[in-house]
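Now read this:
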Amino acid sequence: MKKILVLVFILLLIIGAIDREIQAKTLAATNVASTTESVLVLPTVPTILPANNIYIPLIVKGLQAEFWQPVRMGAERAARDYGIEITFEGTYGEGETEAQLDILRNVLDRNPQAIVLSAVDSRAATPYLERARAAGIPVIGFDSGVDSPIVRTTVATDNYGAGALAASKMAELLDGTGKVAVIVQDDTSRVASDRRDGFVDIIEQQYPGMEVVAIKYGEGNVDLSAERAKEIIREHPDVSGIFGGNEGSAHGVIKAVKELNKEGEILIIGFDSGRILLDAIREGVVAGAVTQNPSAIGYLAVEAAIRAYRGETLPPFIDTGFIWYDSTNIVHPEIQELLYE
């Protein structure tokens, strides 16, 4: 009898250890980043049970940006891990509201188990979100997300915090003085407005010796962002720094500064990566940039969609983190994993 009790006790200890390991892995995949500069590391194995006969479309915006390639890779990895079908589709440009609504309408006609959406215009998408809710199709926001109470959760960077970090770095490099400007994609998407507001609020609230003299919108397009940057430089020839709030915006600022031979005169801070931005940082044209974890955004968005379909409770926001990089740490392995060309 004593031997049996001992064996039962040992078995309970083993089961408890396994359970704690599973809980730890689940927590690692779903907790928000808790520090200013950190990025979430994906687990090496799936953290929820595999799913079968599930179709989840991911609808994005601005496929011209290289940023979406690692996002797609992360989503496809999740699809393989969980044995589900996904599609990855979206508009070519950042500001193509009607084109994205057409995609959303077609996706709803396929009756998917869940939808993952990075909205161009949340208000314009509302009728389709309501249609999804009426059909019992959960909607997950990711990247720029969806500004609507209908979404079950948003998987994204804390974009306000990321914009604030860019402002703090700008202020540090300019010794807390000077006129600065911002170029972001648009004023309709949550991601762009949060990065803009995070940057502007920090400058206005914490650095009295600095002034935000211009906010421009370039639709994430390199050429249009370059024109906006040139407008800023013409209108404010004493501007000291410009923040480009996404890949296309940053590349446009770089293009403008180079074409106007202003390298070294205007401090540039970028966002995300891409070959143009990475080369400009190595050359010293750009001071540095804030990067996200695009692969984690794609992976965890798919995972959240599966959990929503199963009726699980989700946190309102799943933060995949952000981190600053410049010429001093761009070669570090933990940074290289987050960059793309």
The chain has a mean pLDDT of 88.
